[in-house]
Design goal:
The complex is a heterodimer. Chain A is an alpha/beta fold. Chain A has 13 helices and seven strands. In chain A, the strands form two sheets. In chain A, strands 2-3-1-4-7 form a five-stranded mixed β-sheet, sandwiched between helices. Chain A has a two-stranded antiparallel ribbon with strand order 5-6. In chain A, strand 2 and strand 3 form a beta hairpin. In chain A, helix 6 runs parallel beside helix 12 and helix 7 runs parallel beside helix 12. Chain A is globular and about 60 Å long. Chain B is an alpha+beta fold. Chain B is built from seven helices and 20 strands. Chain B is globular and about 55 Å long. The chains are: A alpha/beta, B alpha+beta. Chains A and B meet through helix 2 and helix 3 of A and helix 1, helix 3 and helix 5 of B.
Chain lengths: 306, 309
């Protein structure tokens, strides 16, 4: 029986790292970062919609697409598509892991965009300290950090939401950093396993073993430790420096392509954000930060001071 | 009825289909394809395979675009459609002329690629790729650079008795998003919206070819992002054939209709007779002149620009 698990995350929270870990499980050598599915590796890929529905999403409005998307995920959960010979799904045995940056929303017909239990057996929700997300998102979107902070606070923010051109993916409503996580935690359609980026750092292999167990996959300590080594930040960055990474930020006028694997640390915000920026993020997201255990800077300083 | 020529077929339609080659009515001649409004069943009783909004049975294909239109396609000869309540037929026309006709061509066992094509002297060159790869905008830029439009979006290919692939024109207008129209400076040639709710419009090309042309080259469009470097490359013949097959108008259609062998043979033959290449470039309007420069240099290398018109 085929199973599907969403890898749900607000952008720049460790989703790609997690996919690299999964891809490296039970391998003898580290997987090439450019062999991870890109175009068909995400729920919002147009190719899936067009292929399942037989008419192009590009002739529909975002809202019309949203009404039909549950049908696409329900069909995909049941059948194996072999449409793209260049990309294979991220799978372990019969379990597929599909990245999504869609907030857990319901469409105007009242259906869950991602089709609830008909679309997936569960979700691994990856979260990261919003103060670390902000500079990373700024790098990815090639905007200022202040703009990234504004984007994260905007409940109406989306990826690929243009209407005057064809975005490369279906629109993803992000709902803001807090809204995204809140929506996934509040829904009761499918089980969710929460993973904190910071805990991925602290014990990569252990985090992976627990997450895989949630998805019904037994992996030994040795297997997950080995995958963790293969997907270690230094290895990923080395690969990107040598050959580039196709998911890296697009080149910007006057600047070359950006790098995807930037710092790979937690707590880097301390030397990247101004005091005002830190305060703004903490003000925007206080309840969700508290819920996830991300302490405000003032507390941290006081605690460190003793 | 309105009369058109699409991919080499004569079409009689009760619905105005923007962008197709208008044809004179030929008294006493039975059209290859009839398109008319009528009753469309909710389901096919003997469906052999189904998807969320479509069903395939022997010789028939039922497709619904929920809230917009339902179509029954029969043996590559007929499309009967019914629009949903409150939907004007003009609003549904693009689904008939695009998706409907594309699937109908599959029913006729025609090779249909998801591609745009332009005329280079006495041949056709194709640009393939998934939705959003930039097929139409590249064809639009090339049409302004003096290469007549042959097809947009999908492209019917037929093999002659000697196995030479020919591209059937369908004279479509281009379908471009407003952002592309602005960037390509084509506002003056903008026609009706493809659908009223979309900022996507029919655009008159500078010129369109109405004759069938031998297929000289297929370019599979790729975005230049590391490690894919910009430029034109020739894949090996097996990869080339796989790329051709992978760019069928609806790969799932090929599978459902069990046409994989047909496509593989045609793709192998096309790879042998016509060059299959990858064209990797940045998705950036400012780069169009450079990309057209690469293509022209490549066409000179292939001898396409030397042949007599």
């Amino acid at each position: 029986m085929r199973k599907t698990y969403w890898l749900a995350s607000y952008p720049k929270s460790g989703n790609t790292w997690f996919r690299m870990l999964v891809a490296n499980l039970r391998r003898d050598t580290p997987v090439d970062i450019n062999d991870i599915p890109e175009r068909s590796g995400i729920a919002s890929a147009r190719a899936w919609f067009d292929s399942v529905m037989m008419f192009p999403s590009s002739l529909l409005t975002h809202e019309e697409c949203d009404r039909l998307r549950p049908m696409v995920y329900e069909a995909l959960a049941q059948e194996v598509l072999e449409d793209d010979p260049e990309e294979a799904e991220t799978m372990i045995g019969h379990t597929r892991f599909v990245k999504t940056h869609d907030s857990y929303t319901y469409n105007p017909d009242g259906g869950a965009l991602l089709a609830g239990i008909k679309g997936a057996d569960g979700a691994i929700l990856i979260v990261r300290d919003p103060r670390d997300v902000a500079p990373s998102l700024a790098n990815h979107n090639r905007t200022s950090i202040d703009d990234a902070i504004g984007f994260m606070a905007d409940a109406g923010s989306a990826f690929c939401g243009h209407r005057d051109r064809q975005p490369n993916q279906l629109r993803q409503q992000l709902a803001g950093w807090s809204g995204f996580i809140q929506a996934w935690l509040a829904q009761t359609d499918i089980p969710v396993h929460l993973v904190r980026y910071e805990d991925m750092h602290a014990d990569t292999g252990g985090m992976l073993r627990t997450a895989l167990a949630f998805a019904g996959i037994d992996a030994t300590h040795e297997e997950t430790a080995r995958a963790a080594g293969f997907a270690e930040f230094g290895e990923l960055k080395k690969q990107e420096e040598a050959r580039g990474f196709r998911e890296a930020p697009r080149p910007k006028a006057g600047a070359g392509p950006g790098s995807f694997f930037r710092r790979g640390v937690s707590g880097g915000w301390r030397d990247e954000l101004s005091t005002e920026q830190v305060a703004r993020i903490e003000r925007d997201h206080a309840p969700m930060m508290a819920r996830l255990g991300y302490a405000p800077a003032r507390d941290m300083t006081e605690r460190m001071a003793g | 009825m309105f009369f058109y020529t699409v991919s080499g077929l004569s079409v009689a339609s009760s619905l105005v289909l923007p962008g197709l080659i208008a044809a004179p009515e030929l008294p006493g001649v039975t059209p290859d394809v009839v398109i008319r409004e009528g009753d469309v069943p909710a389901a096919l009783e003997d469906a052999e395979s189904l998807g969320p909004t479509w069903q395939v049975a022997q010789g028939r294909f039922l497709l619904e675009v929920p809230g917009i239109i339902r179509m029954l396609l029969t043996e590559g000869r007929e499309i009967v459609f019914a629009t949903a309540d409150g939907i004007a037929s003009e609003e549904a026309a693009v689904f008939v002329s695009g998706t409907g006709f594309g699937i109908l061509l599959h029913q006729r066992e025609r090779i249909v690629l998801h591609a745009s094509a332009v005329r280079v002297r006495d041949s056709a060159v194709l640009f393939c790729g998934p939705s959003g790869a930039g097929k139409s905008t590249l064809a639009a830029a090339l049409s302004d650079a003096g290469y007549d439009l042959v097809t947009d979006d999908f492209c019917g290919i037929s093999m002659d008795t000697s196995g030479l692939p020919w591209v059937q024109p369908d004279g479509r207008q281009l379908k471009l998003w407003q952002n592309s129209i602005d960037k390509l400076d084509m506002a003056e040639r903008r026609a009706a919206p493809v659908r009223k709710v979309l900022e996507k419009f029919y655009v008159e090309p500078r010129a369109a070819s109405v004759v069938a042309l031998p297929l000289a080259a297929i370019y599979v469009l790729r975005e230049a992002r590391p490690p894919a470097a910009p430029g034109i490359l020739r894949p090996n013949i097996v990869d080339g054939a796989l790329m051709v097959r992978g760019n069928a108008y609806r790969p799932a259609m090929v599978r459902r209709m069990k046409q994989q062998p047909l496509y593989f043979q045609a793709a192998a033959s096309i790879s042998q007779r016509a060059g299959v290449f990858t064209l990797t470039r940045e998705l950036n309007f400012a780069k169009f002149p450079a990309v057209i420069g690469w293509l022209e240099a490549h066409w000179r290398e292939l001898g396409l620009l030397e042949r007599a018109a």
